[in-house]
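User: structure tokens for this one?
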Amino acid sequence: MRFDLTVNGSKRTVDVDPDTPLLWALRDELNLTGTKFGCGIAACGSCTVYLDGEPTRSCQTMVEDVGEAKVTTIDALSGKPAEAVQAAWRELDVPQCGYCQSGQIMAAAALLNENAKPSDEDINDAMDGNVCRCVSYHRIRKAIHRAAELMEA
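Assistant:
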């Protein structure tokens, strides 16, 4: 079945079963491989994309449920919070294996878009459910604080 999606600002058509997870439509049909498969049960955050600006787990979002929502992937993430997060991630050398980082960055940018000066508790709440197999949570928290500083500059 054909579905018209708005992905990263462009109209795209995918020919998939209605119950195909958005993750696989993005990766396999549209070759947008920045969004990662982690667990398949929406528990790890690796597959996070934005639907109309809201962080959403794409592994459990079926293509038929996307409708008119605008999908943004890590491949097209932009704006002041996103740029600050990406700069802080590089500056503080956050990733180890890097596999979870697209989901971590998507969640961190969404947090800073809503709250430009988050506390540790705010960060913990926003990042809850984003699993890092390398356990670099302390560097992630530090980078979010650094990104908040960069946004003020």
